[in-house]
Design goal:
homodimer, alpha/beta, Rossmann fold, seven-stranded parallel β-sheet, three-stranded antiparallel β-sheet, 14 strands, about 40% helix
Amino acid sequence: MIVVLAGGTGAARFLQGLVRALKPGEVTAIVNVGDDAEMYGLYVSPDLDNITYHLAGIADEERAFGIKGDTFAVVDSLARFGYPTWFRLGDRDLATCLHRTNLMRKGLPLSQATAQIVRAFGLQTTLLPVTDDPVRTKLETSQGLIDFQDYFVALKAQVPVNRVVYEGAERARPAPGVLEAIALAKGIIVAPSNPILSIGPLLAVPEVREALRKAQAPIAAISPIVGGTALKGPADRLMRELGMEPSPVTITHLYNDFIDLMVIDQIDSALKGEIEGLGIHVLVTDTIMSDMAKKEALAKEVIVAMGVET
Amino acid sequence: MIVVLAGGTGAARFLQGLVRALKPGEVTAIVNVGDDAEMYGLYVSPDLDNITYHLAGIADEERAFGIKGDTFAVVDSLARFGYPTWFRLGDRDLATCLHRTNLMRKGLPLSQATAQIVRAFGLQTTLLPVTDDPVRTKLETSQGLIDFQDYFVALKAQVPVNRVVYEGAERARPAPGVLEAIALAKGIIVAPSNPILSIGPLLAVPEVREALRKAQAPIAAISPIVGGTALKGPADRLMRELGMEPSPVTITHLYNDFIDLMVIDQIDSALKGEIEGLGIHVLVTDTIMSDMAKKEALAKEVIVAMGVET
């Protein structure tokens, strides 16, 4: 079994390749829940759903959120009642969230609700929320501490951030299966997700980071920063605002206590020596997942470089 | 103020005429909640919403349920998760139900949630659910006691009924404003709604029937049975199954303890004497509300016949 630490779109695209390189049943993703929120009275879990929709082949890849061809009748109708409508939850996407909300109101933890949803979409990949406890990513800005969705969607990440807080993470326990997956994995891969907003909340759960440090399996991380910029989203700008240089070297520092291998793009090949100087192996390859063949090729290369037999 | 005891479509259509004959702010409808149900984890209140949509001019008059031109993306998507989809709750309609559910989860009673929804649709008419307590109409059939929506929507009312039960009605208290409206009304009109399924649950709330008996204002009822058949819905068949002849005379017997005036269609003019023999005045007129002018004309005629000054 290969375990992937996953955020949203970058992870979802990598997982599409990985389930083709292996078998879908051999992949377990441990997924960020720091973006989760209550919207319109519904429990939304954007990273879990985005991965589900990508693996089911129905993701809206242009919006990088929700379901392809979705409509917005409900959210537009809610405007009449005074709800903000900047969170463009599509109607089909809303059905998923409504089902999850119903299951959780019946007392199911997020992990069990997720398992039911993933199965309903016909997927064999295991998706585990990193925790069933509430962890909420918040951002300190000039306007004070704001919620992730306010920052990311309402403000389009266009406001400087001084500090990122993973509210609840210190007290959060890993969801059932998370520690077991890390302990039993043949290889662990940190997906090319935002290190602060997507992987950060995962690592902020103390037992998860501890388990990664102790893991027997080789651990690789794929840099989401290529040529100094983020492939998707605000990671590069956010890193700069937090005083970090957006570079695979910085990513290596962030994960240095548990990774064995750093995967960087050809364009960053000059950084190989510097990363190796930190005691981390380096795979230099084409990390731009522009089509399904490239996604699968990247997944295969990473697995081979980790020395995992499949 | 004129008070209308209201069920679904027949009442909604009559109310459209009444708010034109009077002023919208002079009308209070006391509305059946026996059809209310939890569907897809949402609190649906078909009669309240159907009246709201009719008065807002957005009702789907062909389906006699929901919003004109609505779409069904959510309900169709819910099928994947195993939800039954025979209850065709449209996306825009679902937004209303989601809002009501959110308000009620915050602790608001149905009457307050209703007031907010009615205001959001820009209506000046007051809609009062007959009670904030749960009253659920159930039907005894060869398959046992079944829920109203199962009977009415899933089974299309195509199964014989032995008995109708208004579960919870005996213990239900009138919602705030209901008894006051009845006491202060200048006239009270029982809309041409199904006497068993729509008006029955209203009258089964003990204090409501008692208040009607004691009301100072004249009370009229418009027969929903015309020429032996129901204008809409299964009232005639249901009445027969319950051993009643579907006729304005039977309607008069059902309401005899509190009405002063029975409004019947021209086609039933031969029944005038029999109804008058029960001590009830009779207005014979055209009760078929085929267009807005006829709805308004019927409303005006009833008000005049009740002797109410407007």
